Amino acid sequence: NISKNLSLYVCVCKLVLNSKQQGKFVELPGAEMGKVVVRFPPEASGYLHIGHAKAALLNQHYQLAFNGRLILRFDDTNPAKEKEDFEKVILEDIDMLKIKPDTFTYTSDHFDQMLDICENGMLKEGLAYVDDTNGDEIRLEREKKIESINRNNSIEKNLELWKQMVLGTEIGLKCCVRAKIDMQSANGCLRDPTIYRCKPEHHPRTGDKYKVYPTYDFACPIVDSFEGVTHCLRTTEYTDRDAQYYWFCDALKLGTRSNETRPYVWSYSRLNMTNTVLSKRKLTWFVEQGHVDGWDDPRMPTVRGVFRRGMQVEALKQFIVAQGSSRTVTAMQWDKIWSLNRSIVDSIAPRHTALLLSNSNKENAVLSYPPVEVVVENVEKPYKIDNVPKHPKNVQLGLKNCVWAAPKILIDYSDAELLEAGRRATFINWGNLLINRIERNQNNNNIERIYAVSDLENTDFKSTVKVTWLPKIDYSESEEVLPILVPIVCVYFDHLISKAVLAKDDDFKQYLNTENSRWELQMIGDSELKDLKKGDVIQLQRRGYFICDSTYQPYSIHSGKEMSLVLFNIPDGHRKSITTIPLPISTSNIKDKKLKKKENIAVATDSSINAKKVTKLGLEVQKVSENLGEWYSQVLVKGEMIEYYDVSGCYVLRPWAYRIWELIQEWFDARIKRKPLNIQNCYFPMFVSQGALEREKEHIADFAPEVAWVTKSGETDLAEPIAIRPTSETGMYPAFAKWIQSYRDLPLKLNQWNSVVRWEFKHPQPFLRTREFLWQEGHNAYATREEAERDVLITLGYYEYVYKNMLAVPVIKGKKTEKEKFAGGIFTTTCEAYVASSGRAIQGATSHYLGTNFAKMFDVHFEHPDTHKKSFVHQISFGMTTRTIGVMVMVHGDDRGLVLPPRIASIQVIIVPCGVGVKTSNEVKDNLTRTCLDVCNRLKGDSLIESDDENDNSVIQHRNSSLIIRADTDLRDNYSPGWKFNHWELKGVPLRLEIGPKDLSRNQIIAVRRDNGDKLTIPLEGRPKDDGGNDKMVIRITELLNQIQQDMYNKAEQEMKENVVICRKWSECAAHLAAKHLLLIPFCGRPICEDNIKQDTTLDDGTADLGASTMGAKSLCVPFEQPKGADILKSNDQCIHPKCGHPAGSFTLFGRSY
C-alpha cells in the first residue's frame, strides 16, 4: 500500500509540474499507476488536423503521467469513408507528433463478436429491435418522442429481419437495428439509437464479408471493454452520449479485462480555432475545389499544414498542455499558438538579411521600390567582416563566413527614406556610416543614390537609424571568390475564412478568403541562404521568421534557369496581419520631404503595434444579407456595445449597451408601478429544485434541453442537481400558494429584473440569442379572468411603447397561434418586429394569459367571497429581454455603424471642437474649449446644486433649465477631429455639434445628424431665454432630436409596410419569401397545417450550401389589426395550404424569423 500510494503521489506531482505554464489536468477517477489504458480512435477518412492532435496529445499526456498504455485504434465502422491511404497518412502524422502508441488496433478486429452481441445479447434478450421505418421518419419520431410501430415486434420477427440484414437483401437494406432504451427521455441520445445498419459495401480490411456494420456509438463501449480501456477521453460534444455509453456497458455487462469495471468516460473541450473550419468534409472541399495546394497547404489546419508553415512539435504540445483538460469550449486564437512557437524558433533560428525588390500587387499598385545603392566613398574594395555570429544570443550556432563590406552596398528603399544628410546611421554587423548626400529624381522625387563614408570608430549606436544591407559587388573587378546574392520568394499567408467565429448556421463558403490568403514578395538575400535545406527555420532580420520550403538551385544548363529560394513566413503571434509587408506606394510627387519621412517612419515601426490596435476603426463589411452576421458582430464590438466572453453564447455588456437597457428599465419600471397595474418589484433566487421543475412537466418540456444544472459543490456531487432558472414560474408559484389564501390577497402583482439561463441552442448571436440574458418578468394573480385578460393587453401596450416610442421600431401586435403559444398557457400575445436587411421577423416581447393551469399545478387558490369554496387564481406572465437592443441595432444600423434613437442614447449630443491647427493661438484654443464646455452645460441644464442643510438626507437637484439633454464633449488632443467624427458615428450618437474658430466668429454651431448625415447651422447666442425661461439653442436642439426620433421611426415603419404583403395564393408564397417579405395569409390555425406550411416553404433558393435549405416560413402572430376593405377575409376563404381545405379563421402573419 505504501508503494502504491507513493506511485500515485509521484503521478500527481507530474500532473501539476510547471503549473504556471500548464492548464489544469483533472486527475482521472480510479486511475492507478501502471494500469491506465487510454485510446485514440481516428477514422481513416482524412488527414489529422490540430483538433485530432489535441485528442492524441491529451491521451499521450495521461499515458505518460500514469505510466500506462495508449492504443491507436482505427475506427473503420463506415466502409464508405475508409481508405487505406489515409491509414498510412495518419500513422505518419502520429509519428510527426512524436507520439508512440503501445498498440495498434482496428474496430473491425471485433466485428464477429459484435455481430454475436447484437443477435444474442440484444435482439434475443429484447434489448433491441429491427426497424424498417425510413430514416427521415425515424428522425422525426425521435424528435417528437413517438415510439416506432416496430418497437414491440416479437423476437422471432426481429431475428427474421436481422437475417435479411446480414444477407444484405432488398428487405434488409430497408432495416436498421435500434437499441430499446427510452423514447420518452429528455436526452435524445437515449431515444432508441441505431446500433446496426445494412450497408453492403466493400470494406478495406474485411472485403465483402459483412453486409451490416455497427454504429460508432454501439461499437465504442464494446471495443473499449474488449481492449481493456480504463478511461475514455472524448470531447464535450459527446456529453449527451455518455448516458448511452454507460447504458450499453450495463445492459451488456461489459467490463475491462484489467479490473472488470466499465470504462470511465471523461470529457474535455473540443479545440476550436478562430477563422478556421475543422470539419473533414469542409477541409476536403477546399482540397477538391483547388482552393489550396493539398492537405499540407500551410493555410490548412492539418498537422502537416501547420508543420509546413513552421509550427514546431514542442509548441503544439505546449499549446495543448496550456489548455489542460478544461471543459470550457472557446474559439482559441491562432496568435496564442504562434506566440508559443515564436519562443521556440527564436532561439534556434540563424539570422539572415534580405532586401525587397520591386513588387506590385494584383492591381499593379507599387508595393516596394527596388533597393537603393549606397556609395561608401572611403571604401576602395570589398573585404570580409569576421566574427559575425549567426545568432546574437546562441553562440552554439556558430559564426557567419560570408559577410562582406564593399564600396557599393544596397539597402531597402523604405530605409533610405529614413536617412538624412549629415547624420549617422548604423549598418547592422558593420558599424556607423555618415550620410553625406542623397540624390533624388527631379521628376518624382524618388531616391536614386546615397553617398556616405564609413565612420567605424564611432560606436554611438543609441540614437541612430538601424539599417540592414547587402554588398553590391562587381565580380569582374576582383579575382577573389566573392559572395553571390540569392534570389528569394517570400510567401505570406492569411486565414482561409474571413470570419473569426462561424455560427452553426453560417455557410462557410460565404466567408472565403482564398484569393487574398496567399501572396508573394520578391527579395534578394545574403549568400549563406544558398545552403538552406528544406525545413530549416531562419529569421530574416527585421522581417520575421521563415521556414525553407524549396531550396535555392543555381543556374542549370539543363533547365536554362536559376531556381529561387522559397521561404514561408512563420507567424509570430504579435499581430493579425504581416505588418512588415509594405502598403501600396503613391506614385504622385511628394513635395513635403518631412511629411514623407514621418509616413515612412510610421510604416517602419508598425510591427510593434498589437493586432487589435491596427484594426480599422470603421466597419469592414456592408449591411447586406450575405454579410449581415459579420456586420452585426462588427457593429456591436466596434461600437463598444459588447465584448466577447470565453464562454460560448455569453457576452459582456459594455456601458454603452447597458445604459440602453437602464433607460428602458427606468421607464418601464416606473410605468408598471403606477395605475392601473400597481405592480411591486421583488427578487427570487436563480436556483430551482428538481422537484419544482417536475411539477410542471408540460410547461418545462419546451425548456428541458436548455436547462443548465449545477451538479457539484467543489469536487463533491450534490445529492440532487439544482437547475438554473430558464424562467421563473417554477420558483415563484409555490410562494404564491403560501401568500394567497383569501380573495383579499388578490390581485397579487409582482415583477423582477434578473437574468435567466437557457443553455442549448443553435447559432448564438449577441442580444438576439444568448445563453444568459437579462430580462424583466412579471407574474400576476387575479380572482377573475376579465381582470387578467385586461392586464395582458395593458402590458403588451407598454411593450409596444418601448419599441415604437423609445427604440423607434414599429411592431405588429397580435396573438400567437396554438402551436407557438407559451407552453402551459391559454393564449400568448406578442409584439413582432421586422428586420429588412435579412427579411426576417423577430419576437420583441410577449404577454401570456395562463388561465388557472399553473394555479392547479402549484395549488394556488383562494376562498371565493360568495361561494366560500376553493377557487383557483387566474394568472398572467409577461416579459421583455435585452433582445430589444439587438432588434434596434438590426433595424437602424448602417454601413457606418450604430444609429441610436435619441431617447435611448447614452449620449444624445457629442460636441467636437475642430479647425485647430499649429498656427492657432492659445487664446483661440482656450476660447473654443470654453465654448464647447458652455454649450455642453447648457444642453445638460447646467450644474447640480446640492442642499447645504446637514439635516437633509436627500440630494435636491435644481437645474436652471427645464430641458435636459444627455450631452458630452470630446476634448481629447491625441485624436484628429476626423477620427472623432468616425468614432462617434460608429457609436451611433444621434447628433454631433462641430465648433471651430470660424464658427465662433460667426456665432454659430454646425449640427450633423447621424441618421441621414444632414448638416444644419444653429445660432450660438449667449444665453437668450424665451418667454418660458428656456434657452433657445437648447430648444432648437431638443426639437431636432425629437425630429430625428420621429424620422427614424417613419423610415422603419415604411420599410415594414412595404414588406408585409397579403398573399392569398400558395403559388406566390415562395416568391414573396425570396423577396424578404412577411406574409399575411388566410390560415386555419391548426398545428399540423402550420408544420406543412413551414416544411413546404423550406426550399433551396440556390444561394445556400449544396444540400442546405433556406428557412421555411413559420407563424408569427394573428394580428389584432386585420386587413380591411377589399382585403377583408371572406367567409368562403380557405386555408392557403393546398392540402388543407379547412376554412380560414383569420389572416395570420407568417415569415422567416430569428
From TrEMBL:
CDD domains, A to Z: ProRS_anticodon_zinc, ProRS_core_arch_euk
InterPro entries referenced in this protein's UniProt entry, alphabetically: aa-tRNA-synt_IIb, aa-tRNA-synth_I_CS, aa-tRNA-synth_II, aa-tRNA-synth_II/BPL/LPL, Anticodon-bd, Anticodon-bd_dom_sf, Glu-tRNA-synth_arc/euk, Glu/Gln-tRNA-synth
Pfam families: HGTP_anticodon, ProRS-C_1, tRNA-synt_1c, tRNA-synt_1c_C, tRNA-synt_1c_C2, tRNA-synt_2b
Protein name: Aminoacyl-transfer RNA synthetases class-II family profile domain-containing protein
Aminoacyl-transfer RNA synthetases class-II family profile domain boundaries: 649-901
MF annotations from Gene Ontology: ATP binding; glutamate-tRNA ligase activity; proline-tRNA ligase activity
Any one GO biological process: glutamyl-tRNA aminoacylation
The entry's keywords: Aminoacyl-tRNA synthetase, ATP-binding, Ligase, Nucleotide-binding, Protein biosynthesis
Top-level taxonomic group: Eukaryota
PROSITE patterns: AA_TRNA_LIGASE_I (PS00178), AA_TRNA_LIGASE_II (PS50862)
GO cellular component: aminoacyl-tRNA synthetase multienzyme complex; cytoplasm
